[in-house]
Design goal:
The chain is an alpha+beta fold. It has helices spanning about 1-30, 35-40, 50-65, 65-80, 150-160, 170-180, 195-205, 210-220, 225-235, 260-270, 275-280, 300-305, 355-365; strands spanning about 90-95, 95-100, 105-110, 125-130, 135-140, 165-170, 195, 285, 295-300, 315-325, 330-335, 340-350. The chain is built from 13 helices and twelve strands. Strand 10 (about 315-325) and strand 11 (about 330-335) form a beta hairpin.
């Protein structure tokens, strides 16, 4: 009997404890603390508090704007009836033009060479970006000095890794870099503060040496480290076997080189980037004066301004020129034919700036479709 009585007391105690635990759990759930305890143990769920807030918000919205809720529901229903097609990850765009998803350009049976004396440039390549086929080529795999065409890569690194609105103050080091390397200047003033975006335009449109130095120093602390990023991009793109850079501006160096095919690939990659494309396709960029009596700083891409007056059979939208004695006058440009086909052209070793531009117009007019 004593054993039965003791057992009953034990069971009663157990039941009381269980009821107490249940009461505590209910209380915790009511305050949201149970959810916190469970989350600490890796268990997550919508707590009672979250549900209450969601219900209140839904109720508030429905009370304030029942018509809007009905419209949204109707739109949701329509969307459910006609599911959106998923984006094709293989599609590559340059602006509103779909181009082939790659930077490996191939000769075909239809690839041609320019006639003797047809161009002033000794080396050239014309690539159809719809299929990455080489339409016209001569000496496209020879190692050349890219001169200021290098700045297309300089721009691309800035566009991908730097905030365009970052302030940049022009220093003695930047001005000296321009003078020491015999580079043309964009006209940025010592001690004045601009933006990275201004430096991008300054590097491309007038090919400003101080703008290039400003991007390198602001972006990486030094030109050497910035060039390291440029060369890493060559490696990532599979171009490092035939291309290598030693500086950001395109100054001649025996170890600063690429092929015309490489430069076409670099230009294509840059144009895919929205910020870089905006810079490369701009004919004029104006930086308003900040002081009374000072003139605006107007930057111009003379290649684009000159070639628009020529018969090209379409529109040249982007370009970067260059010159060093070892490369002559050279340029890389992007073109849309009248039939809507996108192309990139690179030429090197022309005998003048004007003739280099004329060669691009002639190549597009004659060989693009």
């Amino acid at each position: 009997m004593r054993e039965n009585k003791g057992m009953k007391i034990f069971v009663t105690i157990i039941l009381v404890i269980l009821l107490a635990l249940i009461a505590v759990a209910i209380a915790l759930l009511g305050t949201g603390k149970a959810a916190e305890l469970l989350e600490k143990r890796g268990i997550t769920f919508l707590s009672h508090k979250d549900k209450a807030e969601t219900t209140a918000m839904t109720s508030e919205t429905e009370t304030a704007a029942p018509a809007a809720a009905e419209d949204a529901a109707a739109e949701a229903g329509a969307a459910a009836e006609v599911p959106a097609e998923p984006a094709d990850p293989g599609v590559l765009m340059i602006g509103d033009k779909e181009v082939n998803n790659g930077i490996v350009f191939s000769r075909t049976a239809a690839t041609r060479a320019p006639a003797a004396g047809e161009l002033t440039s000794t080396n050239c390549i014309l690539v159809n970006l719809q299929d990455d086929s080489i339409v016209l080529a001569q000496g496209e795999e020879e190692r050349i000095s890219p001169a200021s065409m290098t700045k297309v890569m300089t721009l691309m690194v800035a566009a991908e890794y730097m905030d365009p609105d970052t302030p940049v103050t022009i220093t003695d080091e930047m001005i000296k870099y321009c003078a020491d390397n015999g580079l043309s200047a964009a006209g940025f003033e010592l001690g004045k503060t601009y933006t990275v975006r201004d430096m991008m335009y300054g590097a491309i449109l007038p090919s400003g040496g101080e703008a290039v130095a400003a991007l390198a120093i602001t972006g990486a602390g030094s030109e050497e480290d910035y060039v390291g990023v440029m060369n890493q991009k060559l490696t990532d793109s599979g171009l490092s076997d035939s291309a290598h850079f030693t500086n950001c501006a395109g100054s001649y160096d025996v170890n600063h080189y690429c092929t015309l095919t490489d430069m076409a690939a670099i230009m294509k990659a840059a144009l895919v980037n929205d910020t870089a494309r905006e810079v490369l396709t701009s004919k004029v960029y104006t930086i308003p004066a900040t002081e009374a009596g000072k003139e605006d700083l107007v930057l111009s891409n003379w290649f684009l301004r000159k070639i628009e007056e020529m018969d090209c059979g379409g529109t040249v939208l982007a370009a970067k020129t260059g010159y060093v004695e070892q490369a002559g006058y050279c340029a890389v440009s992007y073109f849309i034919s009248n039939s809507g086909v996108p192309y990139i052209c690179v030429t090197v070793h022309s005998d003048s700036d004007d003739n280099c531009i004329s060669d691009h117009a002639k190549i597009y007019r004659t060989y693009a479709v």
